[in-house]
Amino acid sequence: MGCELHCCGPGAEAVTRWVDRDRPQESVRSPRPVILAGLAGALGDTCAVRSAAVIGAVVGADGRRWTPSLSGAAGGERAVITSVAASVTSPRARRDLARARHADLVDLESEAFATVATKAGWRWAIVRGISDGPRTALPPGLERWIDPAGRTRTARVFGGLARRPWLMPSLLRLRGDSAAAMLAVADMIRGMLEEVISDQ
């Protein structure tokens, strides 16, 4: 099946930049599905690390909710996701966020994507791979280790490890868990697209 792949990089501003710059204007109201794929962190034990989840609802910081128009497609766990401006780095912060927003997962982009997708009238979905669990501690500023094209900023990674060498084992584990989670995401999206095509 044919599809276009775009990489927007991390964060809400990256989503907005992608829509403004890279998304062809003639296809903004395309009937083709638009799927946001990437990684998220678990706020509780409902979604297992290395698995993938179809997002059933996006919860904003102000309590607004968005429901993806393709959330019923494919099998798999349905999860509620919320977005923040910077990585949630401590288990306590994850617990607080889960209580405040009643969400299963957290990322940096879903709220911004849901906002523009709804406004544009897209047929849209979000699929997230779970890269880290509720008790995982992450280094501050982790999102700045990825550039707008989604590539790792190697110099920043090495700089961070030079200041905190004890993070090496946990970062290697995070890399392996992230890779496995993205494979699960690819499998889930493949199933979603097959289902969408069969329904046409």
What does this structure look like?
With 200 residues, this protein is an alpha/beta fold. It has one domain: Rossmann fold (3-Layer(aba) Sandwich), CATH 3.40.50. Helices cover 37% and strands 20% of the residues. The protein has helices at residues 12-21, 91-101, 110-120, 154-163, 168-199; strands spanning 33-42, 52-59, 65-66, 77-83, 105-107, 123-132. A 5-stranded mixed β-barrel has the order 1-5-4-2-6. Helix 1 runs parallel beside helix 3 (110-120). It is globular and about 50 Å long. The two termini are 14 Å apart.
Mean pLDDT: 85
Radius of gyration: 17 Å
Strand content: 15-25%
Strand order of the largest sheet: 1-5-4-2-6
Classified in CATH, the superfamily is Nucleoside phosphorylase domain
Given the structure, what is the number of helices?
5
Low-confidence stretches: 24-28
Give the overall shape, derived from the CA principal axes: globular
Give the C-level CATH assignment.
Alpha Beta
Q: Could you write a compact summary of the structure shown?
A:
The chain is α/β, with parallel strands linked by helices and 200 residues long. It has helices at residues 12-21, 91-101, 110-120, 154-163, 168-199, and strands at 33-42, 52-59, 65-66, 77-83, 105-107, 123-132.
Topology:
Layout (H helix, E strand, L loop, with lengths): L11 H10 L11 E10 L9 E8 L5 E2 L10 E7 L7 H11 L3 E3 L2 H11 L2 E10 L21 H10 L4 H32 L1
Parallel strand pairs: 1-6, 2-4, 4-5
Antiparallel strand pairs: 1-5, 2-3, 2-6
